[in-house]
Amino acid sequence: MNIPNRITLSRILLIPIFIVIMSVSFEWGEWKIGYDVLPVSHFVAAIIFAIASLTDWVDGYYARKYQLVTNLGKFLDPLADKLLVSAALILLVQINLVPAWVVIVIISREFAVTGLRLVAAGEGIVLAASHLGKIKTATQLIAITLLLLHNFPFSYINFPLATIMLYIALFFTVLSGLDYFIKNWHVMEDSK
């Protein structure tokens, strides 16, 4: 297994740690931040999430720079992204920081695009990630990190950047999904 794939695997291995820290009631205290409080466990989870998110950029950069792109990496990298984002969003619904309908839309888009990729793979076609898809991922990761931090440091000025970023991420999630299907609809037509 090459280095980019090991980095991707480390992202997958951070997900259960992230889930445990967000799910178990650790009594680590909390900080007052502006008009809100930030549990220390959420701060720790945000750091783990941010580190896991950064590995997405690192493994891709390393794989492209040293021509280490593999089929395993093409499979693991988007899977790791989807698992990380889905776990975080579901946990944010559980603690009432994200509306469930937003998470349903985001996860549904991921299932739909994955389904299209599977159909394409069955036809021997590899569908590359689009520029809009990369923007979607970046906005999701930023929004989730801010939500895990309870909008810190913007909570001090009572500016809801985390919520704004969530809806920007939702916009790019829907837009990139539509773009993906429009550009690749021929795959569905050809597989009849």
From TrEMBL:
It comes from the Bacteria. The keyword Lipid biosynthesis applies. It is found in: Cell membrane. It is a multi-pass membrane protein. GO terms for molecular function: CDP-diacylglycerol-glycerol-3-phosphate 3-phosphatidyltransferase activity. GO terms for biological process: phosphatidylglycerol biosynthetic process. Pathway: Phospholipid metabolism; phosphatidylglycerol biosynthesis; phosphatidylglycerol from CDP-diacylglycerol: step 1/2; Lipid metabolism. GO terms for cellular component: plasma membrane. It catalyses: a CDP-1,2-diacyl-sn-glycerol + sn-glycerol 3-phosphate = a 1,2-diacyl-sn-glycero-3-phospho-(1'-sn-glycero-3'-phosphate) + CMP + H(+). InterPro entries: CDP-alcohol_PTase-I (IPR050324), CDP-OH_P_trans (IPR000462), CDP-OH_PTrfase_TM_dom (IPR043130), CDP_ALCOHOL_P_TRANSF_CS (IPR048254), Phosphatidylglycerol_P_synth (IPR004570). Keywords: Cell membrane, Lipid biosynthesis, Lipid metabolism, Membrane, Phospholipid biosynthesis, Phospholipid metabolism, Transferase, Transmembrane, Transmembrane helix. The chain crosses the membrane at residues 12-28, 40-62, 83-105, 164-182. Its main location: membrane. Its EC number is 2.7.8.5. This protein catalyzes the committed step to the synthesis of the acidic phospholipids. Belongs to the CDP-alcohol phosphatidyltransferase class-I family. This is CDP-diacylglycerol--glycerol-3-phosphate 3-phosphatidyltransferase. It comes from Cerasibacillus quisquiliarum.
